[in-house]
Amino acid sequence: MDALKEQDPARIGGHTLLARLGAGGMGQVYLGRSPGGRLVAIKVIRDEIVDHPEALARFRREVATARAVRSAYTANLIDASLEAAPYWLATEYVAGPTLAAAVGERGAVPAESARRLFAALAEALASVHGHGVTHRDLKPQNVILSPQGPLLIDFGIARGVTDTALTQTGFTPGTPGYTAPEVLISDQAGPAADVFALGATLSYAVTGRPPFGHGPTYGVSYRVVHEDIDVAGVEPELARLIRECVAKDPAERPGLDAVIARCAVSSGLAEDPFYVRLVGDVEAVPQDLHAAVAAGLIPPGRGAVPSAQLPTAGPGYVPTLAPSAPTAVPEARRPRRTAWVVAMAVAVVVGTGTAVALRTLGDDGSQGKDQGPIPSSPSASAVSSKPPEYILNDRISRDYWTLSTDSDLASHGIGQCRQIGAVSPPEELQYGVDDAGDPESPTVAERARIIFRFKYAELKEKPPTPYYVAVAVKPPHEIDADTGKPFEVMMESKNIGYSSKPVDIYTHWKDGGYVELTYPDDFESHYAGGDVVPAIPVANDPGDWTAVLYHVKGGPSDYESIGCTGFRVGSS
């Protein structure tokens, strides 16, 4: 829980805001108090995606699903606003950590406790399925551990039996490592896909490890389709049940009733000693405006609290609340096209020849209080305390981005990278690029805007160890330094191109904001010997440009690739 910021509204609808609960790609989540005194969790959709029809469709689906699924296993809908920006929904506030946060803090769940959790989550899914809805994004981040038992949250990509897909052709919603093979390959998501996600979620709970390992999205998804889940060290019978739930063929997975029966629990999860400890240290939350002000969660200049009730306040009263009219939550402007494309937009599932487009809908996307496992900071040995002023253009680069040959994808500026020798960053890396002047354009005319961040960085309690990143942008062809244009006999570019100054990716760690760069303004090429060449205008070399993210570990030559994207200059 974090303090409200100056730009945050004082109220959303009739609800008084008390604190920030979390953030994600879809929106900001606040702790609020309803007019009748009930604590609520309020998700406000981000300004920059309110005019994206798919984002609004997804948000409206989430509200409709929350209204339809009234269950003891879900956070019930209290209020919503769908007519005009700011769009928001309010659900009952549930005190308790996410499963991801609890395991990250307390460690893996013992086998007997895990069986009770397994059965409780299976019962929760069965309740949701009983309303004709599949969740489609079950994962540890979307399970809240309340004192009474687990609750499922974030139905933003849930689907009813009569619904059609919200994703564009070729795109697959969900979270890598928890999304079933049939969803990755053909977006066929039924109740069996939720069973797969249930097994993967329990694998994380009993091991404390990602069920299909770490790494880039396409690597994790390849393992989901082709390799076994990681249940090393798990009690054999429990490991067997998890493996059956994540069978590659959905027809081979057990039903939820069978899962519950196999768990054979004889007492409630709320009575389990380990579970009680997991939920016992719930962060204290303010119950009203007075308590929020006293806790320092309200910015100076807000509140209508007599200072006599606040030991640290001066004489008189602090100023009254801001007007109650709904106020949009300002956010840093973000590329609209690439807000939907995270890391590798299109990957090939090696060995099958099947193209699988992977997309994070909530870079949230946010999926409500989508906190996820809080990753460890990169080790001090992996970073430099002070980065160089530049990186050298001193190596061969065979990383190339090309616009998709699929006309639907190309119309949104989506393509794919061929990357050699990339390494995995320590946290989930998100990045994108668009035209700086027209984010809706599928191509870049004069300037490209490049953004990147580590998802969930804002959930850390203090600034993480610095992790320096430089971006190198290269045109499709080798450039003549004298003319700033391709050589008369065009040759494919084989160097890193023009690079930005290394910057700590955690620059905006507190609010999870993106680092933002503009090509060509923030770029130049540095060579051994001190030569510096300014970046050329994009119009000098129409075609597919490549942007590679590099982790800068030491000196100007000590860097390694961690991500790749790109953009088309000229007609698509």
Short structural summary:
By secondary structure, this protein is an alpha+beta fold. The chain is built from 11 helices and 27 strands.
Can you offer a commentary on this structure?
The protein is α+β, with helices and mostly antiparallel strands. The protein has 3 domains: 11-93 and 285-309, Phosphorylase Kinase, domain 1 (2-Layer Sandwich); 99-279, Transferase(Phosphotransferase) domain 1 (Transferase(Phosphotransferase), domain 1); 375-569, no CATH class. Helices cover 20% and strands 22% of the residues. Strand 3 (27-33) and strand 4 (39-45) form a beta hairpin. It starts with 10 loop residues before the first strand and ends with a strand. Residues 156-172 and 304-384 have low confidence and may be disordered.
Largest sheet: 6 strands, antiparallel
Radius of gyration based on Cα positions: 25 Å
Shape: globular
- Helix and strand content put the structural class at alpha+beta
Give the low-pLDDT segments. Answer: 156-172, 304-384
- N- to C-terminal distance: 45 Å
What is the count of structural domains?
Answer: 3
Q: Number of DSSP helices?
A: 11
Average predicted local confidence, pLDDT: 78
Strand order across the largest sheet = 1-2-3-4-6-5
Strand tally:
27
Strand content is 15-25%
Percent range of helical residues = 10-25%
